[in-house]
């Protein structure tokens, strides 16, 4: 039996050799395919980065100058603080277009972007997700392209600067979000030259206004909100400025500091004319 077994093994050696050779060729081919896939992935990622860079150079149709030359200003405040009056003061400056409230729509852009980034970071691996994966595509969320398109959207639909606009922006009184600094970070990412103007008022007067009359906890709520807004704007450094309604109503020359921060000329007659005009509704 031993001779028979040896004879059988001898006859099978060529077959085993061919199987091993086939396996080696398959392994080598698989290695080459992996290298090609890696190369194509790198080329795709490079092309996407170039597309994102091109997107960042988009120019809004409403602006006469490139977007990089447009300064952006956000009025940060709460209801019944005199922010509409402040907005009018700013809009009286040549080249200023500061828009009013918009129900906090920019915060929804922040949520959209934050959730997309979170999902991308969770699922992005060394290799792209296949079409069979339930999160297919999110690993390739184009961050810079998304920011460029959101930036364009805000300028063209919310700010809508005129051809001669130098400074644009908006005021916002809705700050329900839990992490205000993170939201301001996002606004600065959209608009790297953005500045933030905090407007406050005597909170007891604000709490007694028609806006808060039915809220027994209005004063406590406003006190907490003002503290959070003050901290968030202060964290902007030189890009943040704080004015108080009661101060500039009592003495309009207090606004000189604001105008200096803005790099604008303080004109007492124009300021007096705006302050004498009834605002809000």
From TrEMBL:
Entry keyword Disulfide bond: no
Pfam family, one: Sulfotransfer_3
Keywords, sorted A to Z: Coiled coil, Transferase
Domain of life: Bacteria
Transmembrane segments: none
GO molecular function: transferase activity
Coiled-coil regions listed: 23-50
Protein's name according to its UniProt entry: Sulfotransferase family protein
Organism from which the protein derives: Thermasporomyces composti
